[in-house]
TrEMBL record:
UniProt-recorded name of the protein: Solute carrier family 12 member 9
Subcellular localization: Cell membrane; Lysosome membrane
Record-linked InterPro entries: AA-permease/SLC12A_dom, SLC12A_fam
Membrane-protein topology: Multi-pass membrane protein
Family listed: Belongs to the SLC12A transporter family.
Domain of life: Eukaryota
Biological processes per GO annotation: cell volume homeostasis; chloride ion homeostasis; potassium ion homeostasis
Listed GO MF terms: potassium:chloride symporter activity
UniProt gene name: LOC107746400
């Protein structure tokens, strides 16, 4: 039977022939099954559950949950949720099957695919996965900067600061702020996976506090009415008067069915497909734990267990939020305000902090995942000399060159998006 110390598929042949070298770098393997240069420190909770939960709790959780419930209704929302989680469950089961079939080293999904399907498939998929992670890091960083400037940025036409709006805006200022965020990600990733795990845990605690504030708010807030004004085209304004009812059976009944209408930000008609496309992005990120395979004490056990528990937890949270919003908020409020969770919170800054933390954690997760994939590609020598420097590690086994290359590429991609 395959165990933690047996290689995957083709590599089993080499172990049967008595090969005691590690198949990737030729380094001796200790009696505990891990290379001496790459100690494994993280357990299931810190190494798999926390990164996966934070990757799935993206900014969509705070800014688009009301949008989904408002347009799709509770029943269609549940249908979308079940379909999305059924789709990702197929991938999760595949990860579980491959990761429990033998020893899993650094590189996560790339390592498992390349050892199962061969280097041709693994290398091409790994390269695309790496580029996707790098681009995602740039998107998350830019989203975080824009969210910060939305609260603290000066008005473009004003030379005087008002209240909290003290940060100057502009192309180069955005590049500067993005560079500072990337620098923070660089420091965390350079120190090592154990610091990343601790930072992720602290961020998870903050996000959890934000979610708790959302859940308990209906027990504290009283019903209230709002005036929301949107501007379309040339000074064409529309004002709606939605209401927050608190827990109300009539509100729940009115929000059961779908009511696809115009989206106030894009002025386009929503449909099941468009709303599902938005909602599905909140169900991605399931590979975050698998990408930490090189830092896990027991990856063959931690990856399947941690991923399944993380996905179950996020599914439960989304179900609770769908029920909460559909039973407390008027449909007009849900479809006319992306920040409805902030508007009806007992202390609105809780949600703002949650948005910042979710974006920062997603950026760090993408960065550390991309660096591990690039390091694994370099070790396998699939692309020859150009990727050779990415194989360099520190004395503790941290691929610092890969991290630096990922940061530079993310900065280039980010500067083109601004």
């Amino acid at each position: 039977m395959a165990n933690e110390h047996s290689p995957l598929l083709v590599h089993g042949v080499y172990s049967m022939m008595g090969d005691t070298k590690d198949s990737r770098g030729g380094s001796e393997v200790t009696g505990e099954g891990a290379p001496k240069s790459n100690p494994r420190k993280l357990n299931t909770f810190f190494g798999v559950m926390v990164p996966t939960i934070l990757s799935m709790f993206s900014i969509v959780l705070f800014l688009r949950t009301g949008f989904v419930v408002g347009h799709a209704g509770l029943l269609h929302g549940f249908l979308m949720l079940f379909v999305a989680y059924f789709i990702i469950s197929l991938t999760i089961l595949s990860i579980c099957a491959i990761s429990t079939n033998g020893a899993v080293e650094g590189g996560g999904a790339y390592f498992m695919i390349s050892r199962s399907l061969g280097p041709e498939f693994g290398g091409s998929i790994g390269l695309m996965f790496y580029l996707a992670k790098v681009c995602a890091c740039g998107v998350y960083v830019l989203g975080l900067v824009e969210a910060i400037l939305d609260i603290f940025g000066k008005d473009p036409g004003s030379a005087v600061s008002h209240g909290l709006r003290v940060l100057p805006q502009g192309y180069w200022y955005t590049v500067l702020y993005s560079s500072l965020v990337l620098l923070l990600c660089l420091v965390v990733c350079l120190v090592g996976a154990h610091i990343y795990a601790k930072a992720s845990f602290i961020i998870l605690l903050v996000v959890t506090v934000s979610l708790i504030s959302i859940i308990i708010s209906p027990l504290i807030l009283r019903p209230q009415h709002f005036n929301i004004t949107h501007t379309y085209g040339n000074n064409h304004t529309v004002t709606v008067n939605p209401s927050y009812t608190g827990f109300n059976s009539t509100t729940l009944k009115n929000n059961l069915g779908p009511h696809y209408s115009l989206d106030y930000s894009t002025n386009t008609m929503m449909s099941f497909a468009t709303v599902f496309a938005v909602m599905f992005t909140s169900c991605t990120g399931i590979m975050a734990g698998a990408n930490m395979s090189g830092e896990l004490k027991n990856p063959s056990e931690s990856i399947p267990k941690g991923t399944i528990m993380a996905v179950s937890y996020t599914f439960t949270v989304y179900v609770l939020l769908f029920l909460l919003l559909s039973s407390t908020c008027d449909r007009l409020l849900l479809i006319n305000d992306y920040a409805v969770l902030q508007r009806v919170n007992v202390w609105p800054p809780f949600v703002t902090i949650g948005v910042y933390c979710a974006s920062l954690s997603a950026a760090m997760c993408s960065m550390i995942g991309a660096s591990r994939i690039l390091h694994a590609l370099a070790l396998d020598q699939l692309f020859g000399l150009p990727l050779a420097p990415a194989a360099v590690t520190s004395s503790s086994g941290n691929p610092w060159v890969s991290v630096a290359l990922c940061i530079c590429l993310s900065m280039l991609f980010l500067s083109r998006m601004i």
